[in-house]
Amino acid sequence: MLRTKATSISLDGNFKLEASGQEINVKASRARAILAILATTDGHKKSRDALKALLWPRSDEKQASGSMRTALSSLRQDLGADADLIGANRTHIWLNGPVDLHLPGNGEAFFEDAPTDIGAAFEEWLQIERHRAKPQLPLIVAQERGPTRRICIGILPTQERLDEPMAALLATQVLDFVVESLRAYEIFDLFDFRDLETDHFAQGAPSMADPELYLRLSLTKVRTMAQLSVSVRRGRQILWAHATSADQSGPFLFSHDDVAAFANQTVDAILKAAFRKHEGPSFRERGPQSMIGVIHQLYGMSRDGQHSVRRYLEGHPELGGSALANACYALSVANTLGEGDPSLADLEEARRHATRALELDMQNPLVLAFCGHVFGFALRDFSVGAEATKLARRQAPALPQAWDFSAMNAIYRGAFPDAMRFSRKAAQLGQYSPYRELFRSSLAITATLTGEHETAVQVSHSVLMRLPEFLAVMRHAAASHSALGQLSQAEDMVQRVRARDCLFSAEAVQDPNYPLPSAASRDAIGRTFRVLGHT
Prior knowledge:
Layout: E1 7-10, E2 16-19, E3 22-24, H1 29-40, E4 45-47, H2 48-55, H3 61-79, E5 86-88, E6 92-95, E7 99-102, H4 120-133, E8 140-141, E9 151-155, E10 159-162, H5 168-184, E11 188-192, E12 213-222, E13 225-234, E14 237-247, H6 256-278, H7 283-286, H8 291-300, H9 303-314, H10 323-334, H11 344-360, H12 365-378, H13 382-395, H14 400-412, H15 416-429, H16 436-439, H17 441-449, H18 453-466, H19 471-483, H20 487-500, H21 519-532
Parallel strand pairs: 1-7, 9-11, 9-12, 10-12
Antiparallel strand pairs: 1-2, 2-3, 4-6, 5-6, 8-11, 12-13, 13-14
């Protein structure tokens, strides 16, 4: 007999189930996950094998089958008189009757209490569904103009040759990642030519230049093979192109990390074009001429670069209404901690700018990541920093800055397993970036604090080759060299730090106000001074 009772499943925020007019408490996290997966699947039906692969990836077949039976039994007990909501046979599991599914208006709020650390396949599913739950991006992304002319980019319709319509979601994911990142930098105007039906100019068109660059994505899928390719064009001229292919040997053609890395390569290519356009070959002599130059100086981690950022922003008061500009100013202050400045007045200025940035735009993931680091490291407000970096990860899961600063915040709180997970994610997402070494810095520091000293030395050496003034990495590299018995290298690193920070000493690092990320850092670096015979 068919079930006719109304069932409501909400994935807007935390999971919520209502049946027969009553809310039902589903106790087991994997039971809630089963309902969420079935509710979002076409036809509300999924094979047992697919569910086992998603929810029990580390178990063998017998264990996974037993775990699924246990989860279904627990779920039916929770459902009580509504246990007929769940249908099952030897091969499939499904939901009976009409199901009213409530999704969030913003993808980041999708199934917020989903179980964690199940495995990569479940995380892939979760990220895909969060993207599907996001509202469609608008045709025009118009923002206030800064002191330099913005670059206008046209996003062309995707060229698709598919034997499976759902594969088109891959192209949507890539372009949504790209748009998320480009919007965050506040120097691009975006025309989205994918939506040609809606009249977005009914209230008048914004004053924007015609696109000078075009982004074209192509996706081909034939049987088990697929290829993604992308090009950045100026008219018919191809400025940059890249492609990647995959064989469907797993549940997804391309993993979530594959898609994110592909999108990040595209963003990096566009940022390089923007840097060449706005900054030019005399950048080192002139300093920043635009926000893209400001970002470049911030990421360089040099003291002079941080001061040039502040000079540029102070000289352009029209950027006072820019969330990113305020966040950059605050971050430049944090980046000079431990080099004889900033003063208490500077720290208050950092607080003011970071607070203003968050007031202006809590939707910009770059702003959230920058301000999270400022609050966590410079202002030692770990809870605000943790919340801001968490929001950055959720709003832009492909953004390496979000994961890098999340790793540092986890270090401040002593959550070293999270720090290692976040830092490895940042390194993976930023592996092709021109700022690759910056995104590996948290991995270098975390490796020191977790006792992985060989990794710490290797990564630190790579980071300091590109960012020779990165004091935080130098301080922790000294500790790792010392732990490995490489005392001459440890001494050299100590002297490199002292050349920029004359206060660096055994006594200074024990001062709670000295800019070290955690008590574990004080212990490791203090031990290094003792081993080297410094008093």
